[in-house]
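Feature request disguised as a bug report, sorry. It would help if multi-protein outputs had a clear separator. Right now it looks like this:
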Amino acid sequence: MDCYDVAIIGLGPAGATLARLLSEKLRVIALDKKRASGSEGFQKPCGGLLAPDAQRAFIRFGLNLPTSVIANPQIFSVKTLDTQTGITCNYQRSYININRHAFDLWMKSLVPERVEVHHDTLCKRLERTDEGYHVTFVEDGEEKRIHARYLVGADGANSMVRRYLYPRHEIRRYQAIQQWFEDKHPVPFYSCLFDNDVTDCYAWSISKDGYFIFGGAFPMKEGRERYDMLKEKVELHRFTFGTALKSEKCTVLCPSGWRDFVCGKDDAFLIGEAAGFISASSLEGISYALDSAELLSRILNKGGTSLNPSYRKSTFRLRLKLLSKVFKARILTTPWLRKLIMKSRISHIEQASAR
């Protein structure tokens, strides 16, 4: 059995960043569901917007985005619509419009060759030992097994590592559904939609490279029905759809309190959405994936004892920030509070002509 210092499960933004930042003194293996390149295989469903906090992380890393991951157009405002009251506001936002799959592949391409990367693999089983973890995975139909001193779960909302470490932990989750359409709107736009009759979370739309993506986060058992219901409602507000060209869905976490942020234990660690590090108010997770990976890399590179308490301590400010997003989400998803804020027109930017 091959032995490693660190095994990383998942190479999304969190896992790929950690793999890139770990010391060359550590022997690292990374397992990922995505293929090494191309448009086939697993792809993360996502609206594909890079928030300012994520942009700041790239500044710290000294990295610039290649044009191959940038999508068109770049939009500087979000059209916020409360479908229950019909109130619409336009707020300034500094997101970068990206192609999410191209972005993920680019992040993987930055992983140094010293890291042993296995693409298009499926992690099957985890076993705790006296000196680390046995990890069993399937690659090209063949079952393989390795040993690692430290285990890192960077495997997203349905994290196998989180379930293994915290089998009784329950966190609020939604079914995220989005569809791609030919964009027939005269002016491309990005929107944030609220309707408590459909979901107590929120929905979104984004224009991207000639396509119009419409999606939302809905109750797990009624996702598609709620999605179709919202689609009918927003057509009354000049949203144009046509025939769906592609449909996507996935599970998305939505923390509701402090206990939902789980950092790991017993020489196993969680980063990104696997740790519950995702904004409850916007479902934005890339920035927290980058930040938590950077924090964990410092802990693992330093080594020593009590690594789990050190990592948990280092993420305190990040978790505190995410807790503030939980409170913000409660305000935004409370109809009378949302109506009060939007009717106040605070920070609203009036447009010269309506769409």
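(second protein starts here, but nothing in the output says so)
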Amino acid sequence: MSTTTAAVPTVKLFIDGKPVESTSSEWREVINPATQEVLARVPFATAAEVDRAVASAKAAFKTWKKTPIGTRARIFLKYQQLIRENMKELAAILTAEQGKTLPDAEGDVFRGLEVVEHAAGIGNLQLGELANNVASGVDTFTLLQPLGVCAGITPFNFPAMIPLWMFPMAIATGNTFVLKPSEQDPMVTMRLVELAHEAGIPPGVLNVVHGGPDVVNAICDHPDIKAVSFVGSTRVGTHVYNRASQAGKRVQCMMGAKNHAIVLPDANKEQSLNAIAGAAFGAAGQRCMALSVVILVGEANDWLPELVEKAKTLKVSGGSEPGTDVGPLVSCAALDRVSGLIERGIQEGASLALDGRNPQIAGYAKGNFVAPTIFAGVTAQMTIYREEIFGPVLCVMHAKTMDEAIEIINANPNGNGTALFTRSGAAARHFKEEIDVGQVGINVPIPVPVPMFSFTGSRGSKLGDLGPYGKQVVQFYTQTKTVTERWFDENEVGGAVNTTIHLK
């Protein structure tokens, strides 16, 4: 933590439609993980600044909730255009502060852009229901009304996509929003917020505060915040869910994972190994949907040497370098943690089939790099299996049958994503029926659904019933109000008092 004034830019808060210089005495440096260059300083907002952001959102809600749905939709049509026009700039900012490769950074932005496009269709998504003449002259219908001020807490690994999972759908459904991006890489998020206001989002509808645990707790506790969306670690997500729920808020938390793939011997070897290597080591393994465990079934166990050779071909370097496949980890602390877990795996008896520690990267001597690393002979009792490593480390297990592999996966407490590689339709059907994981891929290693559907992680990977984006998030950000109404004909003669419970 830095408390000194440095000759680098300061990241601003965003309150009531404009950037605001924080008065905080607590600041953190935003550091390029490939070079250790200090890019900016980010403030940990004061309690008064959080209150000011929420007050701005509360005031704006009074008019925003009455804004015609078509007007809201047109703002997001404009917003998606601005994101497309500024894609290269957004990706460059993201790569500098987070480390992922430029193509992957563009993918990060693009997957968020898809949700913005979805938000532009809010007119079809926020429809209620009507039942005509449910009793004599009586109609019943529902309204999907916004909740009020909502808040989002986002992680470092997708600083464009995950904020775009949150505030566009919340705002499109008529709410106002307070966003707390990761303090490790907030700069691309702030640029996206600037573009959102350029697209026409009114002052106060979208506000940003930065900070650590104190700001998170303030969001959980604030009486004027009605709903909280969170993506991040299981430890923090559980805290957010419990604290915000106890404060009477609606909460959704997408948390940690340990995603498995099963490889059957009948799978297409080349395609399967390419997919596994990309899903395990892309983004340096810093994805909540990264493929961190592969279970080779039967004769597929013989493919391990070829998987190792695939991993060796991946280029490790700075994210802005052409042809880079694996960039740095986000911080020195992350590097220390991943390196420590690799050492723990060796100590606990796993076989290090490929050691990616301490790679020598030309021009990036100070970078937080770990090259692709593969452990074989991993068991469910090992720390490298039980913990989410969040680095380019793949655990390889072996099973005699697919059912044995399914048992391994279902015994794991997490349920974010899983995949099966096979040519057999019968095997795929059996897998889909028996696996207890919320998002399933068949020959697809990272089965994150497109925004017409919802992100449906399950079990230990999720708290709350409704996922981000898609149809589910419209329910999350709206309150269903049911109206039952009867209109009498002006010439109708009134009858007797009716004391029965039903209408005729």
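Even a blank line would do. Unrelated, but nice: The two ends are 69 Å apart (CA to CA).
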